[in-house]
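Q: I'm writing up a methods section and want to include an example of the input and output format. Could you take the sequence below and give the corresponding predicted structure tokens, formatted cleanly so I can copy it straight into the document?
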Amino acid sequence: MSQLLDLVPTEIHDLEERDLNALVHEAVEFAELGAADAEVSVSEVYSPASPLCTVDADRVTRLLDNLLRNAFAHTPRGGEITVTTAVIGESLSVAIHNTGSYVAPEDRERVFQPFVSGRGNGTGLGLAIAQQIAYAHGGSIDLTSDETQGTTFTVLLPSAESIAPRPDTRPTLAGAA
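A: Here is the clean output for your methods example:
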């Protein structure tokens, strides 16, 4: 069964510099279309800095989609989802908060394991895939949860400015002119 997760592409290929706010907004619009009957309000709060990140946009969109689907699935009717971007030092942050859900401390690490689902119809792959994509970009995902406030997944990605160019380490041919 764990070999199924190996079939899901999470490695990064086509890196491009993108405005994180625009990338997140596109993902939110797409997620709202898929959850039109959820009766959940969505708020977007974007960093005024127009943060740039160097990412595989398709993979980061998948990461965001997985987190947003999770938020919609665990937010009760009348609840709220808030998506926030920020610049934190040399990192860029995307926080997806939803009201009405709670993850107990003993379950917080388990939710990122493959095939662990908090809902009956889930596959348990969404958060595991999201975490792998974040790691592949040199980032991370953190989970905080409070019984009265809800749950927040925070993704940290390196900013475009913090990614140092890699030196050319290809071997040179001696005597080549």
